[in-house]
Amino acid sequence: MAKKRISGLEIGISEQDRQDICEGLSHLLADTYTLYLTTHNFHWNVTGPQFNTLHTMFMTQYTELWNAVDPIAERIRALGFPAPGSYAAFKKLGSLPDAPDEPPRAEEMVARLVRGHEQVAAKAREGFRLTDAANDQPSADLLTQRMDIHEKTAWMLRALLAK
Ligand SMILES: [Fe+2]
User: Fold this and answer.
1) What is the CATH number of the domain that holds 20?
2) From the CA of 158, how far away is ligand 1's center (Å)?
3) Which residue range(s) make up the domain with 62?
4) Which of 96, 121, 148, 160 has a 20 to 30 A CA-CA distance from 29?
């Protein structure tokens, strides 16, 4: 990440800690954005007898993800670093796969989203350790909220796959 020191940012967290936390938040932002786009893609392309349920459920989920990227990016700004916001940057920072070119069957969509939410929850948990050690409560709070929603969403999607 580019080092762009913002003078006067004296909030009781060292520059190194802020930079490390922002790196974690940038990875989370990229993965959240990718999961948002994949969920919206699946909202458009889902087919089959569960169409209505999944089309509607995916809309609720992509809306939540879309709303989540803003506070993550703005926390990075509040910590004094630039927020990434391009496909090139997200590709570099992200660890989630892109949506497949060919829309998969409905069950495979759900399974992919379960994995996506689990991975993003794990990413948020990884970042949390840094925020806790650096005494950065607002970032810790944001990451706690993200873990909670991703774990809950993963459960709801997983429940659809039960036989
Ligand atoms: Fe729609």
Assistant:
1) 1.20.1260.10
2) 23
3) 15-160
4) 160
Distance 58 CA to ligand 1 centre (A): 9
45: in domain: yes
Class of residue 104 by CB neighbours under 10 A (exposed 0-12, middle 13-18, buried 19+): middle
**Would 149 be classed as within a structural domain?**
yes
The pTM of this model reads 0.93
Q: What is the DSSP letter of 117?
A: H
- 27 alpha carbon – ligand 1 mean position (Å): 27
Question: Given CA atoms 83, 120, 93, 2 in this order, what sign does their dihedral have?
Answer: positive
Separation of CA 121 and ligand 1 centre (Å) = 26
Dist CA 4 CA 159 (whole Å): 45
The domain tally of the chain equals 1
Spatial contact of 96 and 34, defined as CB atoms under 8 Å apart:
yes
Residue type, 4: K
As a whole number of Å, the end-to-end CA separation of the chain is 45
Q: Is residue 137 part of a domain?
A: yes
Give residue for tokens 């809950």.
Answer: 152
Spacing, Cα 16 to ligand 1 middle (Å): 42
Write out pLDDT tens, residues 72-117.
Answer: 999 999 999 999 999 999 999 999 999 999 999 999 999 999 999 9
